[in-house]
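tool=predict chain=A
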Amino acid sequence: SKVPFSFLSVSMSADRFASLIGEYVPEEEKVVDALNGRRFAISAAIQKSLQEIGPLESVHGGFERMRLDACLLESLSLCMQAGLCESAEKRRLHEDDLRAIREIGRRIEANPASIPDIATLAREYCMSVSKLTRSFRRVYGTPLHAYVIAAHLQKGAKLLKHDGFSIQKIAEIVGYNKPSQFSADFRRRFGVLPGEYRLRG
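tool=predict ok
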């Protein structure tokens, strides 16, 4: 619909991906291998492409389905381009640092409420705070703090849809001391308050 949306990651099977790009890309298996597990920033072009998809309830077949397929292919091509064209800065990261940053990213996605402050996290991975924040942004395309907040809110949205917890309890589960701050951040992220989001089912 017209409700704002966000996501941390999107995945599909290698076979499905290969079948989608096979008509357009030679040696699609090599492209699949190159993109497998690759992370990239959501650029303004990707955001614009996703916004042009429009409300899915208006797609009933025929011409609407053709237009939807075209929009999705455009979004996929932009994501592939972003994933294949890593910045030189990212490629210069030491392999051990890159491995550490990706491990931190996985920890955030799995349990954002368990992530300590940046100084503690930097000590855990034997990095300076500046190196950690700089390296994380190179790999994920967004500041570490913003990534953690997005993960908190993504988990909160999932709990609102599938569990019977109160909003105050959900705020606590995802790491907020103040439910009011959770509600304010949630509204900035999704465009509605947690209670409204839950009612929309």
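The chain has a mean pLDDT of 82. The radius of gyration is 19 Å.
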